[in-house]
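Section 3.1 - Work completed
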Amino acid sequence: MNAFMTMPYLRFHFILRNVLRIFFDASDDAEAPSLSSMATAVFCISQILFRRNGGAMAIEVYTGEGWLASSMANGAAVAQLAQSEACASDVPLLITLEGQRKSVERLMSRDLPTASVWLQTTPIPSLIKRLEKTFEAKQLTLVALEGSAYPSELCPKGCRRGETGLFSNILDCFRCPQPQKNQSALREICDHFLANRTLELAIIDTGGPAVEEWYVLETYCRPRSVFIVNSVFALHEGWIAARLRSAGWKEVLSGRLRWGNGFPHMLSLVEETGWVYMMDFGYFG
């Protein structure tokens, strides 16, 4: 496990990228611009990361249809099976957040290789105790938190996915305050659980720019790698990828995603988008 941590940057980058390509290219979906190919990529990434660091953490914001949460759990389960007995006590912490109850219900109905638990983010002051009780069994568990990573009541006009699915005034994206203690579920999770472990993977799929969500992730969670959905889509998360590139992060894997079939009224120029997986290799230099 420590061998990866001491590798020079270029060697680690080369090995990880090529191992991922071997995993990903072997799948039937690797070249197709589809949800299936994206889910395959997350499965491969999760498996490799948790083989290297079985006691780490992964967070998804937000669940949506549950494709990526399921893939994250599948990869972690395969990684755990491959671990030696000496590392058997290292259990990944898997969390996905979602504000829409129907999406959580769909995820809970999936045939997952892990245990699954559905919790409310509120009341936030008791969230950590409820999560600790869930994780104390040392069993690989996917926790679905129903609620927002960034509290909607803190910034009701901000860039968030409203109940109608529509964006508010785009200028309000830049006017939301920093969440304080016991205001943001995501901040509380990172403040507590990352005291003695790392956030190996953050999946960003917000259906919008994710300004507030990324602020919390960058400030309090400090992920080592990020999987960004809709990385080249208007009014979505591509700015995060650009910000990470300017900070020295490297693209490890990317792919295409086509929304046209699922959303038939979209303009043709935005029917095809993409996703990107990026890593901060500074942690491993």
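Second construct:
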Amino acid sequence: MSDDRYTRFDLVRPDHLGEAHWEAINVEIVRFSRALEFGDDAGAIGYLKCTLEAIAKVVLDINGTPADGNANFETVIGNAHTLLATQPGHELAFDTPFGNLATQARKMAGSMGTIRNNFGGGHGRARQPEVRSEMLDLAMDGSLLWSRWALRRLGYFAQGRPETLIRDLIGDPRGQIIFYGGDLTERLRNARLIDLESKHARAIGVAVGQRAATGTFNVRIEGIDACIADADLTRWPAAYRLGVATGLLFSPEELPTLTARNVHQGLEVCSPILDASTHRRIDASTHRRTSVRLSSAYWRSRRRGHFLARQQTT
């Protein structure tokens, strides 16, 4: 065994990864480290495989598609890799040669199922297999290469999930988080709105509109003003726009949040949606309902303004 192999390949907790998910990964890392300390090479191989499996299952769990209990190890790794491979992030590499490296790392990680079955701990055997020093070195090199690649992306992946973003926008029992300049722009990019199901893109839009209606300027600037300034329905899908319009008009408790600005921006954000039937991602019935609510809100706000003006003059 070469010296300090574990510390050279230390695995770091990603930002934005929840405590429970990190604990599921870290417990395997700790077990792997202890096996190295005690010279248990077979045990270290087994815990390497468990570390890979924990990372992959966390990815699938965050995605809302938990791994089947009977799923093949290599299939679990492959499914997680596919989700992470296209994850955007300002420090991540996407050029083809680097993608090829990641693919080869995934293949090495996938081999750990067979290696663990043949040489690792966790199985009762009639005879213990010989684990040569380089076997463990190669297993570590391949496994930890993919693990580090996956963990670098996992923070961005967790941050961009609809449920996480919606929770941070409109709050949960622990309250809302503060959005500083650039935060929402990055998180919407990580969410990949165009790739989401319409219901998820709309839910994010509703949360953005509702948070902006409470007076959070950065959310309004980066989630609504930027959308109004860019009519591209690819970057800002119709479902997201319809959600924003709804969120601007009604709070999470379904109470009206009518102001002239909210109604005006609700109309503006939907203006690129000229013909719902020509856009495959647009739910035409949802478009009609939102349009009716916006029109109704607009005229109610106009009548309310005239009423207040008359009160002030009397």
